[in-house]
Specification:
heterodimer; A: 510 residues; mainly alpha; 3-stranded antiparallel β-sheet; 21 helices; 5% strand; flat; B: 240 residues; alpha+beta; two-stranded antiparallel ribbon; 8 helices; 7 strands; 48% helix; 19% strand; DNA-binding (chain A); SWI/SNF complex subunit SWI3A (chain A); transcription regulation (chain A); Homeodomain-like_sf (chain A)
Chain lengths: 510, 240
């Protein structure tokens, strides 16, 4: 909300955006309106020059020390003139933020009238904080600190993503059956016209309670058991998706408690679910059994995001899978970079990413003049060792350091490789986007041309019709002409027969 | 002067307090039965007259004064009000009158000295607002200071206004043709008015000269109780 205004001394002052109309050299319309008395030439003490002097003096005085609040009394002694008028100018400048605009200066008013700043901790009443079972970590609303002073900065939410889909489900609403007054654990039936709910059992028994007799009036609402996804189930789901790809029957089987549709809907809801589906459907069955087990270890990484995406890249790269694995287990300081690499790799298709990786590796190897083979470490021994070590990152590091020796694959090189891959992937993505844009542009141009053609064609059609009409009319007129001629002839004949004078004949002879 | 005539002349206005609110400053100083009641406040002349008695009664009751005060208070207020009303029908010239207002007053423990310019022609002026700003900016905590300052300003304005009426009458009587603004009307103002012409012309600046700065600066002193007592004693002696 700040605009930069350079004063005559070429220092930069920031002023609030709403006062950016102000100019040193001129008197703005706003000022003229406010201070008509200066501009109406009604008195010698009120002229535009005087106003400008007052204004400039006050602003300059303020800018001598922008951190302190300028008071009217401190400047009034400097200026000759009616103090009421001066105060009016002063208040005007204050209101428009040309003086006393720093946030710290505005405390004075509030502090004098209100002694304590109100600090609210915890969540405000409007936000309900629940640990929704859909996420692996609970969503906490940020502690809002409200003060009378200006800051009013709201802290961003602490979660890495916002769980949009969980709002619609209310897992903690306990529904009681209207009839047997027990909890409706799974599905419940809701009456169309009233708000009575009855549980499944009651519905099956046919005891609807009270006047609600027609079975048709009830509709099945929500399957609360199916809506709750525990962590294990989510994990199972993800694993089975990776394993089985599109085969939802198998997935539903492995995630035993959830139906096929539930699995699909849950997967869509997960933030990366679609990527997963896309990647798995394009994936060849080069799935190595060990990779699944790797995912188990990887899952203990910091965030679910990263975890799934590293898993993804495990799946996505047909190229050097083992290298990827190890790269994924690099210590935390690199994890952000890996995340970026993972994101980019997941965005482009698998083949593109592998091509990028290969190209990057080739380039790096040319640079470092080391054989490419060191990257081809696709051996199961690594993975078994990794697996055996269990879930501790530190042990992973040890492993990695051990591997450093025999493999001679320094961390730096790997990092460079991954960065290069990422860049390659990004470049590929960019090219794809550019191509898309071009195609779109061509499309649009074609559409425009089409439209123009259509316009011309319809115009032509219109003209054709017009021509037809004209032709028809011409014929009619021709016909008219003929008849007139005929009539004239008959009239002449009559005239001749009745012996009309010559003069009359002449007029009709052309 | 000719140039001024074309731009600055204003016709006479009906007498009133040249402030946004037409309030009359009333000063009371009544002594009776060994007790002395001193007060100063502003009164709205458009209030009905019976309010005066009501006010007097309430004041006596609040301050626990002997009831003889009621009539005296009421009388005093009434006479000042009627003085004010006597001026009301008449004309005054307020033209280009920017006058210096001086403050030199003591309110409980606070001593204020100040001087500033006030435009008599500015009918939107507000002494109370000015007093509020003054107290706020100078950090004066005593809540009685503000109203006292406002009262002092009003008193001076009232006096100038009555002078203006007198001089307007006088000038009409003497049948002087008044062209241009009334720079000569109030003797106090005339000197300053000359300066005004110079000050507000194109050549000079409205920023005050350094030598005058001290005069126009507000000074607030906080006195100790002994000093207050000493001052009060001196005032009593002067009054007698």
């Amino acid at each position: 909300m700040e605009a930069i205004d350079s004063s005559a001394e070429l220092e930069l002052y920031t002023i609030p955006a709403q006062s950016s109309w102000f100019l040193w050299d001129d008197i703005h319309e706003i000022e003229r309106r406010e201070f008509e008395e200066f501009f109406s030439e009604s008195s010698i003490t009120r002229t535009p020059k005087v106003y400008k002097e007052y204004r400039d003096f006050i602003i300059n005085k303020f800018r001598e020390d922008t951190s302190r609040r300028l008071t009217f009394t401190s400047i009034r002694k400097f200026l000759v003139g009616d103090v009421n008028l001066l105060q009016k100018v002063f208040l005007f400048l204050d209101k428009w933020g040309l003086i006393n605009f720093s946030p710290s200066l505005n405390d004075n008013d509030t502090l004098s009238s209100v002694d304590n700043a109100k600090v609210e901790q915890g969540t405000p009443a409007g936000i309900r904080v629940t640990a929704t079972p859909n996420s692996l970590r609970p969503i906490t609303a940020p502690p809002l600190v409200e003060q009378r002073t200006v800051s009013g900065v709201k802290l961003p939410p602490l979660t890495s993503y916002s769980d949009v889909f969980s709002d619609s489900k209310k897992p903690d609403d306990v529904l009681l059956c209207g009839h047997c007054a027990e909890r409706c654990d799974s599905a419940f039936y809701q009456h169309n016209k009233s708000i009575v709910n009855i549980c499944e059992k009651c519905f099956k028994n046919g005891s609807y309670g009270g006047e609600n007799n027609a079975a048709d009036d009830f509709k099945l609402v929500g399957d609360s058991a199916a809506a709750l996804w525990t962590e294990e189930e989510t994990l199972l789901l993800l694993e089975s998706v990776l394993k089985h790809g599109d085969d939802w029957e198998l997935i539903a089987q492995s995630v035993s408690t959830k139906s096929r549709l539930d699995c699909i809907s849950k997967l869509i809801e997960l933030p990366f679910g679609e990527f997963l589906m896309g990647s798995t459907s394009g994936r060849l069955s080069s799935a190595v059994p060990t990779e699944d087990e790797d995912t188990e270890q990887v899952k203990t990484d910091v965030q679910e995001h990263e975890e799934t995406e590293t898993r993804e890249e495990n799946e996505d790269e047909d190229g050097p899978p083992a290298k990827r694995k190890r790269v994924a287990l690099i210590s935390d300081s690199d994890s952000s970079l890996m995340k970026q690499v993972a994101t980019m790799a997941s965005k482009v298709g698998p083949s593109v990413a592998t091509a990028a990786a290969k190209a990057a590796i080739a380039a790096l190897c040319d640079e470092a003049s080391c054989p490419k083979e060191i990257f081809d470490t696709g051996d199961y021994t690594d993975s078994t060792v990794d697996r055996a070590d269990g879930d501790k990152d530190t042990e992973m590091e040890e492993q990695r350091e051990e591997k450093d020796g025999p493999q001679g694959l320094p961390v730096a090189l790997r990092i460079r490789a991954s960065v290069a891959t990422a860049l390659g992937a990004a470049a590929a993505q960019a090219k794809i986007l550019a191509d898309q844009e071009e195609r779109e542009m061509e499309d649009l141009a074609a559409t425009v041309i089409d439209q123009q053609l259509k316009k011309v064609q319809s115009k032509l059609k219109f003209l054709d019709q017009l021509e037809l009409i004209m032709d028809a009319e011409e014929e009619v007129i021709e016909g008219g002409k003929e008849t007139i001629l005929q009539e004239r002839i008959s009239v002449l004949q009559c005239a001749f027969r009745s012996g009309v004078t010559k003069r009359w004949d002449h007029t009709y002879v052309k | 002067m000719k140039a001024l005539g074309s731009s600055g002349w204003k016709g006479p206005v009906k007498f009133r307090m040249p402030t946004a609110e037409n309030l009359v400053p009333i000063r009371l100083d009544i002594q009776s039965e060994g007790q002395r009641y001193k007060d100063a406040f502003t009164w709205n002349p458009s209030d009905p007259d019976n309010e005066v008695v009501v006010f007097a009664k309430r004041t006596v009751k609040d301050l626990k004064l002997p009831s003889a005060f009621i009539t005296q208070i009421a009388q005093s207020i009434q006479s000042q009000l009627s003085d004010f009303r006597a001026y009301e029908g008449q004309d005054m010239y307020t033209g280009e009158k920017i006058i210096p207002i001086k403050l030199d007053l003591r309110v409980n423990h606070t001593l204020i000295k100040d001087q500033f310019l006030w435009d008599l022609n500015n009918f939107e002026s507000d002494p109370e607002e000015f007093a509020r700003t003054l107290c706020k900016d100078l950090g004066v905590e005593d809540p009685e200071v503000g109203p006292a300052v406002a009262f002092a300003i009003r008193e001076q304005l009232y006096e100038i206004a009555t002078q203006s009426v007198a001089s307007a009458k006088e000038s009409r009587l003497s049948k002087k043709s008044r062209r241009g603004s009334d720079h000569g009307s109030a003797s106090k103002a005339s000197g300053l008015s000359m300066d005004l012409v110079k000050l507000f012309s194109f050549k000079s600046s409205v920023v005050r000269k350094r030598k005058d700065l001290d005069v126009y600066e507000p000074v607030v002193d906080l006195l100790t109780s002994e000093e207050v007592d000493a001052l009060e004693a001196r005032e009593e002696r002067h009054a007698r």
